[in-house]
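Pasting as-is:
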Amino acid sequence: MAIVAPSTSTSTSASEPSASYAVPLTIVTTLFFMWGFLTCLNDILVPHLKPIFDLNYKEIMLIQFAFFGAYFIFSIPSAKVIDWIGYQRSMVVGLLTMGVGAFLFVPAASVPSYPLFLMALIVLAAGITCLQVAANPYVTVLGKPQTASSRLNLTQAFNSLGTFLAPFFGGLLILTAAPLTIQEIRALAPDALQAYRLHEAATVKLPYIGLGIALVLLAVAIGSFKLPKIPHAQHAVGEKVNDSIWRHPNLIFGALAIFVYVGAEVSIGSFLVNYFSQPDIGGLTEKAAASFVAFYWGGAMVGRFIGSGLLQKMKTGHLLGICAVCAAALVAISMMSTGHFAMGSIILVGFFNSIMFPSIFTLGVAELGPLTGDGSGVMIMAIVGGAIIPLAQGAVADRIGIHHAFFLPVICYLYILFFALSGSKPNSERARA
């Protein structure tokens, strides 16, 4: 299923050959890589900051709550920014905001202060939100409607490349080779404890300074290109549109699907380092476990490249349903097993996560036309699931253990199965039913 956009006679018509969009799609794909990289670094921050500030699982999940909660706050305003200044300038605004958030990690590490880290993450996520609200629908409608899902899966594959590389980068530069245990940290004198926190927190400075510089340079580069406009998928401020996003059930069901999908994906990724460190699972050090997290995200990258090809021949809803069933089964298997089998099954979930976000997004904004930007805001707002579900899983893990707390992602994947089979039908299909 794909967006139904009216053909126009302008130079940016969706009826033009897709080859004419190769350059702009390549440019925008770099943005997908960057926000994937930054998002996945949170999976390294979680185990790194947990012992520094002596936090339990619920408290450390405030990292994901702050980061993904920003999507809920800033998505609708970002959609309005698109109406005001267009897709390209909104991407530049998002990149610059991300750069500010990255630079804020320096004062947070200098104090060091957990609340300041959370504030830096909120600013960083605000920029990523603006970027996602602009870039996802831009890729979806920039080309033939029939290949929208395949196209977004391909660009999202480079997002997964960023998530694959981030754990190696973070593990090398942020996680120390032999950190103190929580018991050793609690035994330190106040002065020694403060010195330890300063030393450990300082490891995030250099990576995020480098990322901040890269984001500013990328903003300048994106702003200098002349990307094609897509007026059929955008409306001006004050322009009357004889439609409403709330008249499209596929958008509402799709937003809920994005909520549970991101919640499940982030919950699994956030707990993997601690999960693989459990004696009955892997017994690994945090640094060694971080490298295995990369395979979880790497599976999503491989799956998206494969999925982009499969979606040329399969219906998006059918492939999404298959992946939802497989992901739910693999999480359940990991919960019921131990050792390397439990590790391997949970890592393989990443492969089946691969096509979920771009497929849900494409199905959710289908047939929105000039309301595509507003619909994108609703869909991206639903990424707040990455804030709420990991926090809930953290609370459950504190009570029943990290191993069996993964039942929450299983429930999430079952809802995605419903969306794939029924909830994703656009109005044109519902009218024929």
